[in-house]
Amino acid sequence: MKINASTISLTVDDVAASHGFFTKHLGYSEEVAAEGFAKLTRDDAVDVVLLQKGIEVLPPEQRDQRAAGLILAFTVTGLEAEEERLRSEGAPITMPLREEPWGEKLFQLTDPNGVIIQLVEWTTPV
Description:
CATH superfamily: 2,3-Dihydroxybiphenyl 1,2-Dioxygenase, domain 1
CATH topology: 2,3-Dihydroxybiphenyl 1,2-Dioxygenase, domain 1
Domain VOC: 2-122
CATH class: Alpha Beta
Distance between the termini: 39 Å
CATH architecture: Roll
Pfam families: Glyoxalase
Keywords: Dioxygenase, Oxidoreductase
InterPro entries: Glyas_Bleomycin-R_OHBP_Dase, Glyas_Fos-R_dOase_dom, VOC_core
Shape: globular
Number of domains: 1
Order of helices and strands: EHEEEEHEEE
Protein name: Glyoxalase/bleomycin resistance protein/dioxygenase superfamily protein
Radius of gyration: 16 Å
């Protein structure tokens, strides 16, 4: 098997709210959208599909589920500058910037549907 692309599909209560968050704060652009659906893309990251909770394209047993317990992590450079930019934009930083002893610097923000996004930069362990 050869994987040609990667996409994460998130079932959310409000597609428009997550769409706006990902495009405004994370640099995604809309590839395609319809009622209850949006596919967002970046050249350097996994594509994101947003599905409206209850949408009929999902099997019945999945329709009432929504994104929960998931952390969508992106490895970046210039982490401090990204945190500063996001704060200045009013993005909800829900875990402040910190550095772990194994060399991981990170912070988290949460979109309007509760999707947790973690930005990470790896450094030399302290």
